[in-house]
Amino acid sequence: MENKVAFITGGTTGIGLAIAKQLAKDGFAIAVNNIVLNEDFQKEIEEYGVPCFMIQGDVSDEKSAEENINAIFEHYGRIDVLVNNAGITRDNLLMRMKEEEFESVINVNLKGTYHMMRYVVPIMIKQRSGRIISIASVVGVKGNAGQINYSASKAGIIGMTKSLAQEVASRNILVNAVAPGFIRTPMTDKLTDAQKQGILSQIGLKRMGTAEDIANVVSFLAGEKSSYITGQTIVVDGGMIY
Ligand code: NAD
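Above: inputs. Below: predicted complex with nicotinamide-adenine-dinucleotide.
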């Protein structure tokens, strides 16, 4: 098969969907996993003239992560780009946060990213090349009241990105992160109007970002034009001023 292969975790909605479409336009064969799959996604991607492989999976479960990576590798024979996009929020103030709310966010966002890195890196080492791009958040850089669990998970992703980049640079594997600000997706649709107004007042450009704003940066990091960039986190937040 001629196409390079990009695997986007949780890649059937929101930012992941925009990334899958952009990487399909770039000519990548696409693989995605998700807790629940939707058949329309596959047709939508195949309209770009590239193959699409969907698989049910839970990034927080190590066995499922390993099986997903193995299934994608068996299907396509290679994995060139891993985009760690799957993520959840369980917002609450520290004083009210239950252990389950803390753990579930760490398990999906941080441990899930670790699981995928753990099982894709041996494949990329054998291929002698690869790109790992993880979706962090501006909240992992600056913090946000009500999100100690989420900000810890995203700050953790930024740290893992820097460390893994150093471990695998000599193997020609580039590891970077993208830290979105507030992007209009099913995740942020849950915010109240008052919360959205509060957020808008902090954004220099005075608008929420689009999923395509993030997909464009992922496309750059997955492509040839970024071949001397590793260990970096690119903040895409419209100029947040808090
Ligand atoms: P979204 O809810 O549309 O996408 C997240 C996807 O991950 C969903 O499809 C969900 O089903 C999937 N997912 C959740 N748990 C999973 C698991 N255990 N295994 C596999 N898939 C799982 O929201 P989004 O806004 O598109 O978020 C995508 C990424 O961008 C997330 O990592 C999120 O933290 C990050 N992000 C979003 C924003 C924003 O403003 N929307 C800002 C910064 C960072």
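Strands lie at 5-9, 29-34, 52-56, 81-84, 130-135, 173-180, 233-236.
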